[in-house]
Amino acid sequence: MTGRSAVAGSVLCMPGAVRWHALFVLPQKEDQAEAWLRRRGVYGFHPVTTRRTTRAGKAREYHRRYLPGYVFARFPGEAKPHEVLSCPFIQGALTRADGAWGVILPNDLRSLHAMRRVDEDADRARRAEERMRRRRQSIQRGDAALFKSGAFVGHHCEVVQVLADNGAKVSFKLFGREVLTTTSVDDLVAIQRNT
Prior knowledge:
Order of helices and strands: HEHEEEEHEHEEEEE
Helix content: 25-40%
Distance between the termini: 79 Å
């Protein structure tokens, strides 16, 4: 047996019921601790949310940790603390008053996942509001605009009113007559700003 397969075959728990534990890990080492556990047959996760930013024209993705320094691990039996602590990234676990490793109920972990979902929903709503604000600012009352999509694509118009629901009332000539209609701001592009 090679040294690598001996490490991969090391046992981190004794037979028993599935148990979840909260492990303390070194700062910024949650991913490495999860990988170490995974190689030994133990599922682990740390709750994060992904953020995307653009700086100097470059898109960048980063993860924000909800509980830095924690990895939640599902052991297929009773964990052997001395084996788990042989990981260079794991420092300990959440314990009970008697010093034994505390067991976390799956329902408690579900709330962590729900917290992540709430944050993602709030972030999505914030981005949508920002897009709406930019659209409203991009088309203003009195602007000369051009239909870039829809039934009147290519026609010039004047923005008469910007509506709260991402819409706009526009006026344009069709077959020599002045027509007033409502359209989406997304269908317009401003070509001359009314100052």
